[in-house]
Amino acid sequence: MSLLRPDLYHTDVLAIDLESLRASGIRVLLMDLDNTLLPRDGSGITPEVRAWIEALPAAGFTGCLVSNNWHAHVEDVAADLGLPIVAKSLKPLPQAFRRGLAVAGATAEESAVVGDQIFTDVLGGNLLGMKTILVTPLSSSDLPHTLVLRRVERRLLAGREPLA
Ligand SMILES: [Mg+2]
Predict the structure, then answer these.
(1) How far is the CA of 105 from the centre of ligand 1 (A)?
(2) What is the pLDDT of residues 17-40, one digit of tens each?
(3) How far apart are CA 65 and CA 81, in angstroms?
(4) Ligand 1 mean position to 20 CA, how many Å?
(5) Which of 13, 24, 26, 141 sits between 20 and 30 A of 107, alpha carbons compared?
(6) What is the SS3 assignment for 107?
């Protein structure tokens, strides 16, 4: 089903080809936080991912976090990373990424979604016609219902390997 299919699939955000993404007209990245940028196992943002985020403006991108997380600490993480955040966003409902587009002052056509879950990030982005980039989760720790969905996601991705 095409709404559940990511346009790109990478091992992590570091593997995303920002140059060709920018050349394709994308200038805004609406990014998931948990297990996309921040491991859910509590190990914290790696220096490599932090440097990648900090280099986005120079590469021509505006970043915005769109997270379903309800905990107040995500606001602190966003501030620490220097990124705006739409929290409690209710992905995959279209309102979630619409709020992100409003914060970034961008249209769906010039924005891409980056996330580790098909049923929130990829589905939500595809519902608005955005380019969707799936990454492998940073840790195997996650919420119980997410771990159940991961089994379904693995079947949807059958045979498709993430590009490094
Ligand atoms: Mg996530």
Answers:
(1) 23
(2) 999 999 999 999 999 999 999 999
(3) 10
(4) 24
(5) 13
(6) coil
